[in-house]
Amino acid sequence: MSRRLGSQTVVLGNRPGIISWASIVGQKEHEGPYGGKFDQVLPDELNGEQSFESAERAMLESAVTLCAQKSGRQPSDVQMLLSGDLLNQIISAGYAARNLAIPFYGLYGACSTMSESLSLGSMIADGGYADILICATCSHFCTAERQYRAPLELGNQRTPTAQWTVTGSGAVMVAGGAAAGSAKVELTHTTCGRVIDLGISDANNMGAAMAPAAADTIATHMHDTGRSFADYDLVVTGDLGHLGRDLLIELLGQKKVSVPEAKLFDCGCEIFEARQDTHAGGSGCGCAASMLCAHILPELASGHLRRVLFMATGALLSPTTTMQGESIPGVAHAVVLEHREG
Amino acid sequence: MSRRLGSQTVVLGNRPGIISWASIVGQKEHEGPYGGKFDQVLPDELNGEQSFESAERAMLESAVTLCAQKSGRQPSDVQMLLSGDLLNQIISAGYAARNLAIPFYGLYGACSTMSESLSLGSMIADGGYADILICATCSHFCTAERQYRAPLELGNQRTPTAQWTVTGSGAVMVAGGAAAGSAKVELTHTTCGRVIDLGISDANNMGAAMAPAAADTIATHMHDTGRSFADYDLVVTGDLGHLGRDLLIELLGQKKVSVPEAKLFDCGCEIFEARQDTHAGGSGCGCAASMLCAHILPELASGHLRRVLFMATGALLSPTTTMQGESIPGVAHAVVLEHREG
Question: Is this complex's ipTM strictly greater than 0.95?
Answer without folding.
Answer: yes
